[in-house]
């Protein structure tokens, strides 16, 4: 069984770190994760501007004159002989996402709680796999539909079915302020 298959059987889904963008009209940065297989659902997580910059720099290979915080953390891990093995977005409580870093020292793995933005900034630097608990992506992931996708009858039926399930499960109190 491959590592990815094992991850799926444990209730996590491997994702790609697609990038950072700014959500309008709030003008707030978000990090975008996309499911590698299956529906290729997209998960967006609101993050701070410094973390957005750190992730964008890492993805674009930008080297700064002095190390940023995440660069420093990566250097500290290297000096201590610790490897960031994987990052997992573990839960969504109200509107707050949680993540964990899996740090390997020899045969021992230590799990450390982290903000997703920091975990993803580190993952972008070291190139480790990123996973999302399936319950999180089921709750907050969305299927992005392009114009070309709308012409695909199979995908259109799938999107309509997911929307029906959403409508069936929505409660007017969910929209109360």
Keywords:
177 residues
What features would you describe in this structure?
A 7-stranded mixed sheet has the order 3-2-1-7-4-5-6, with helices on both faces. The protein has 177 residues and is of the alpha+beta class. β5 (96-105) and β6 (108-114) form a beta hairpin. 40% of the residues lie in helices and 32% in strands. α3 (69-80) crosses α4. It has helices at 3-9, 49-60, 69-80, 116-126, 134-140, 147-150, 153-169; strands at 12-23, 28-35, 42-46, 83-93, 96-105, 108-114, 130-133. It is built from 7 helices and 7 strands, in the order αβββααβββαβααα.
Low-confidence stretches: 1-9
The gross shape turns out to be globular
Using only C-alpha atoms, the radius of gyration works out to: 18 Å
| Major pleated sheet | 7 strands, mixed
Strand content: 25-35%
Helix count equals: 7
**Secondary-structure element order, as H and E?**
HEEEHHEEEHEHHH
Structural class: alpha+beta
Average pLDDT rating: 84
Task: Report the helical percentage.
Answer: 25-40%
- The strands making up the biggest β-sheet line up spatially as 3-2-1-7-4-5-6
Strand tally is 7
Distance between the termini: 47 Å
């Amino acid at each position: 069984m491959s590592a990815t298959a094992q991850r799926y059987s444990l209730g996590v889904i491997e994702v790609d770190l697609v990038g950072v963008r700014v959500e309008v009209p709030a003008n707030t940065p978000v990090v975008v994760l996309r499911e590698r297989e299956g529906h290729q659902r997209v998960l967006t997580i609101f993050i701070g501007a410094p973390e957005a910059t750190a992730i964008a720099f890492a993805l674009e290979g930008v080297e700064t004159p002095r190390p940023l915080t995440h660069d420093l953390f990566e250097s500290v891990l290297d000096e201590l002989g610790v490897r960031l093995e994987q990052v997992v977005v573990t839960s969504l409580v109200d509107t707050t996402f949680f993540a964990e870093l899996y740090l390997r020292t020899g045969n021992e793995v230590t799990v450390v709680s982290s903000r997703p933005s920091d975990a993803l900034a580190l993952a972008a630097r070291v190139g480790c796999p990123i996973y999302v608990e399936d319950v999180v992506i089921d709750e907050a992931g969305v299927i992005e539909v392009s114009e070309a996708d709308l012409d695909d009858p199979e995908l259109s039926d799938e999107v309509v079915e997911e929307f029906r399930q959403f409508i069936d499960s929505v409660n007017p109190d969910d929209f109360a302020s």
